[in-house]
Amino acid sequence: DAGVTQSPTHLIKTRGQQVTLRCSPKSGHDTVSWYQQALGQGPQFIFQYYEEEERQRGNFPDRFSGHQFPNYSSELNVNALLLGDSALYLCASRRRRAGTEAFFGQGTRLTVV
Amino acid sequence: AQSVSQHNHHVILSEAASLELGCNYSYGGTVNLFWYVQYPGQHLQLLLKYFSGDPLVKGIKGFEAEFIKSKFSFNLRKPSVQWSDTAEYFCAVNAGSSNTGKLIFGQGTTLQVKP
Question: Fewer CB near the last or first residue (10 Å), C or N of chain A?
Fold first, then answer.
């Protein structure tokens, strides 16, 4: 049973470019959340998707957007990249019912130069 | 705003020493509480969780945590650490409805266990 898988594992982009990160949830999970983890910090919630809609959003600008597909996989898009967007981006999945915990992928390390 | 505070940023212990990592949160309502661990080069893994019931929660690898509602705390403990416990530890809170997926994390504690 595969856990949460993310691609790519590493990425280098130039300021101003756009990036798309991908996530496949753990089997049986229908809810996907994205987090940004800067070096030396805890993960920060970006947004959550279920039933193909954004349901909750953290304190991130509109440059951060996402999508969830019918098979529950998800994408995170970041436009107009800034140097400060360099971070580890984590995807977490869970079953959308009370009393369930989130499972995390290994993350995508994004470096903006 | 909801927040989670981990008091110890970097802890160094010798093997067999006891461990306690502090975690406090700011939210007055119902909370679900978690400790996650990140071993070097690996993804975040759940150590233990509290949703309701017995405030003393036992997790994997001999870890436990105690939820003290009056102190807004959820400290992590282990009686005797091993070298393999070297990792980064994160406390997280899921506030409000237990059906929400938003986790608020502390900034983490790096634990280094010397053999």
Answer: N
Note whether A46 and A60 are within 8 A (CB). yes
> Which residues on chain A are in Cβ contact (under 8 Å) with B6?
42
Query: In 3-state terms, what secondary structure has residue B52?
Result: coil
Contact A17, A81 (CB under 8 A): yes
| Pick from B34, B80, B115, B90: nearest CA to A102 | B34
Among candidate residues B102, B75, B93, the one with its CA nearest the CA of residue B3: B93
Q: Which residues does chain A have within 8 Å of residue B34's beta carbon, measured at their own beta carbons? A: 101
Distances (CA, A) of A58 to A3, A48, A62, A107, B102: 24, 9, 11, 18, 8
Question: How many CB atoms within 10 Å of residue A71?
Answer: 8
Which tokens belong to B41? 């080069």
User: pLDDT tens across A75-86, in order?
Assistant: 999 999 999 999
Q: What is the tens place of the pLDDT at every residue in B21-75?
A: 999 999 877 889 999 999 988 999 999 999 889 999 999 999 999 999 999 999 9
Q: Which of A33, A43, A99 sits opposite B101 (nearest CB)?
A: A33
What would the two tokens of residue A44 be?
A: 């920060």
Closest CB to A104 among B44, B97, B107: B44
Asked if B100 is an interface residue toward chain A (Cβ–Cβ < 8 A), one would say yes
CB of B39 within 8 Å of a chain A CB? The answer is no
